[in-house]
Write a structure and sequence with these properties.
Blueprint: H1 6-43, H2 45-48, H3 52-70, H4 72-84, H5 101-120, H6 125-141, H7 147-173, H8 179-221, H9 230-282
Helix pairs in contact: 1-3, 1-5, 3-7, 4-7, 5-6, 6-9, 7-8, 8-9
């Protein structure tokens, strides 16, 4: 039940936005092909000696960096809209944010490309779940509704990925000249992940779920339709809950990796130094 039928809810966004959607899918594909062509020339044997999976990993992460930088525009839309409303999340879910349409559609194109990559390269199930949930969720939001909340996830979330992918690219290529940059990116990513995805994501997700639940209940209790489509909203609520839950799983993984990289590595280095000192004393 809703103010609009199935065609308006599920087909109209595609019919309306395909002049942006299809070219952007092609753009992401073009970035991927360009990276495949240019990396062997730029990095030479450092790239060519990598296993095929590692080469694909570097290329895919390059596209993700491109998307993260592109979505800076979406983050600007979110921050600007938040400032214009006194730094309070808006409750008018059907009010569009100026200039946000391009980014709303571009992120759908990115997840179309992401789905292809997940299955083409046989990535783990959690990445496929994330890509599928993100694609369906982003497409349903392109009705459009919830721009004020969607721009946070398309903008701030994707922006936080940039240092993570840059660090991974550097470490995969084993470019020692940029090892310090990789470490800086790791620290920046950990901070951004905690603030943007865990803390901020929890707040925005809870606020949006609360708002959607209220609108759905108002529709039921007052016998007055106030939403465009109940089914798409419920699906979006489930998918966003899954995506936000994945952030907590990944937080745990980040903490484990950070412990191995910084704490365990420091302990190993200290043990090595002690061993060297003992050998020198014996000599």
């Amino acid at each position: 039940m809703g103010l609009y039928g199935a065609y308006d809810t599920y087909m109209s966004p595609l019919v309306r936005d395909w002049p942006i959607l299809l070219p952007m899918v092609a753009v992401y594909g073009a970035v991927q092909v360009t990276a495949q062509w240019i990396y062997p020339k730029v990095f030479g044997t450092a790239f060519q000696k990598l296993a095929r999976d590692d080469q694909n990993n570097v290329i895919v992460r390059t596209v993700s960096v491109f998307n993260g930088l592109l979505m800076v525009g979406s983050a600007v839309c979110f921050v600007t809209n938040l400032r214009d409303h006194g730094y309070v999340l808006d409750t008018d879910v059907y009010r569009e944010i100026p200039y946000y349409r391009f980014f709303r559609v571009a992120i759908v194109a990115y997840f179309v490309w992401d789905i292809f990559v997940c299955f083409a390269y046989k990535w783990e199930a959690q990445w496929k779940v994330h890509a599928f949930a993100s694609l369906v969720g982003a497409y349903l939001l392109s009705f459009p509704y919830s721009d004020q909340y969607g721009s946070y996830f398309t903008g701030m979330f994707e922006l936080s990925n940039v240092p993570f992918h840059i660090s991974s690219i550097i470490r995969t290529l084993r470019t020692t000249a940029f090892s310090s940059l990789a470490t800086i990116c790791d620290v920046v990513f950990a901070f951004m992940f905690l603030i943007i995805r865990v803390v901020g994501g929890s707040v925005v997700t809870f606020r949006w779920l609360q708002l959607m639940y209220k609108l759905l209940m108002d529709t039921r209790s007052d016998d007055k339709v106030v939403v465009h489509d109940e089914a798409s909203i419920i699906v979006s609520m489930v998918l966003l809950s899954i995506i936000q839950s994945l952030q907590y799983v990944w937080l745990f993984e980040i903490m484990k990796q950070g412990y191995r990289r910084f704490v365990v590595a420091d302990d190993s280095n200290a043990d090595d130094q002690v061993s060297v000192s003992k050998r020198k004393k014996k000599e």
